[in-house]
Specification:
13 helices; Aspartate Aminotransferase, domain 2; 7-stranded mixed sheet; alpha/beta; 388 residues; binds pyridoxal-5'-phosphate
């Protein structure tokens, strides 16, 4: 199911078409970049979307009871997360929701905490809305990262800081935060009246033996202070349908968020994402499990090849299908590294510096692709590094 190789050129894909220099893929390079998968979504979802399309009505659509029931039951079944239908607000994507939350919960000039290196739209969303990035950089410890809690305490206590964006699991460093770590983050935010937006979009994509804790499950007191971003997009490879489910238990936070959403002009959900989401959340757990097992084996393969490249270090990956490689041993600046990966290795990457200062000299590779393609790309990397 996951070994098939598809050429997605000509589909309007970010990864294959619009962000790739002309001719690069034709010359044999392979995109291990943008965070969607090279796997077709589950057959049940494809069938549900086809059947819906055949009806021929792409009308104004709401997240009705059937939709919300599917989301609620999935949260309980897969994440032991008990929610009420009313807590769910549908939005056209998690990045959209982050922007809405920034406007709903902060004023121009307020500070918003992030922990870099982190998914770069976090920083952009804060700056584009005239708010101030308050960075609490993650600390590299061996082949992994930790949060700097003492600095977080200080930053959260600042008068101007009103919101924190937590990435959980963390893109790009692949951490699945422990319950103890989440306890500390949640408590610091609660104590300082800093609203905590927990972006849990990667929560289904976990490496073997890892388990994700939804922030509200750490301590029930957190529910008054959190906005949890979820979606079918990463889990079932449905990003192009542009739908996310934002879960807000607090009535007052929910009302503020929805008022802002209405000001932003967002009302109905994508009509195609309704059958896709219902089917994904009711009938496709098996696909998620098989996809995770396949990605686990890809990560093992990546680790074994990269261990043979002295200049490159692969960091631990606990969650997501993204690997974070320390390439500093190659001694190349960011531009030279990008050219080396593209031209000498045939790899289209997401450069580490996009994710913040601490990402300089790193690269993020997406390993949710057919194993043979990944192996070929990493062997090209190994051969090119040997030649340097
Ligand atoms: C942490 C994180 N949040 C949000 C998104 C994008 O979400 P959406 O497509 O729903 O805007 C991504 C995509 O890579 C991501 O990694």
């Amino acid at each position: 199911m996951f070994d098939s190789i598809f050429n997605r050129k000509g589909t309007g894909s970010y990864k294959w078409d619009t962000t790739v220099p002309d001719g690069l893929i034709e010359r044999g390079a392979y995109p291990l970049s943008v965070a969607d998968m090279e796997f077709r979504t589950a057959p049940e979802i494809r069938e549900a979307v086809s059947a819906f399309a055949q009806k021929g009505f792409f009308c104004y659509t709401d997240s009705d009871k059937e939709y919300r029931d599917a989301v609620r039951e999935f949260m309980l079944r897969r994440h032991d997360f008990s929610i009420e239908n009313e807590w769910i607000t549908c939005v056209g994507g998690v990045v959209f929701a982050i922007n809405t939350a920034i406007r709903a919960f902060t004023e121009v000039g307020d500070g918003v905490i992030i922990q870099s290196p982190v998914y770069y739209p976090f920083r952009n969303s804060i700056e584009n809305n005239g708010r101030v990035v308050v960075d609490n950089p993650l600390v590299r410890v061996g082949a992994s990262y930790e949060m700097n809690f003492s600095q977080l305490e200080e930053l959260a206590a600042r008068e101007d800081v009103k919101l924190m964006l937590l990435c959980s699991p963390h893109n790009p460093v692949g951490r699945v935060w422990t319950k103890a770590e989440l306890e500390r983050v949640g408590s610091i935010c609660l104590k300082n009246n800093v609203i905590l937006l927990s972006d849990e979009i990667h929560f289904d994509i976990l490496r073997q033996g890892q388990s994700h804790t939804v922030i509200n499950n750490v301590d029930c007191a957190f529910a008054d202070n959190t906005v949890i971003c979820t979606a079918v997009s990463k889990s079932f490879n449905l990003a192009g349908l542009g739908t996310s489910n934002i879960i807000i238990a607090s009535k007052s936070l929910r009302e503020r968020f929805r008022r802002q959403l209405s000001t932003d002009g967002y009302s109905c959900i994508n009509s195609v994402s309704r059958p896709a989401t219902i089917t994904a959340y009711t009938s496709c757990d098996y696909w998620l499990d098989e996809m995770n097992a396949y990605v686990d084996a890809n990560i093992d393969l990546a680790r074994s090849i990269i261990a043979q490249i002295p200049q490159v270090e692969m960091l631990d990956c606990q969650g997501t299908y993204l690997i974070w490689l320390d390439m500093k041993g190659l001694g190349l600046d960011d531009d030279a590294l990008d050219k080396f990966l593209q031209n000498e290795c045939g790899i289209i990457q997401d450069p580490g510096f996009w994710f913040g200062e601490g990402g300089k000299g790193y690269t993020r590779l997406n390993v949710a692709c057919p194993r043979s393609v990944l192996e070929a790309a990493l062997l090209r990397l190994k051969a090119a590094c040997n030649k340097l």
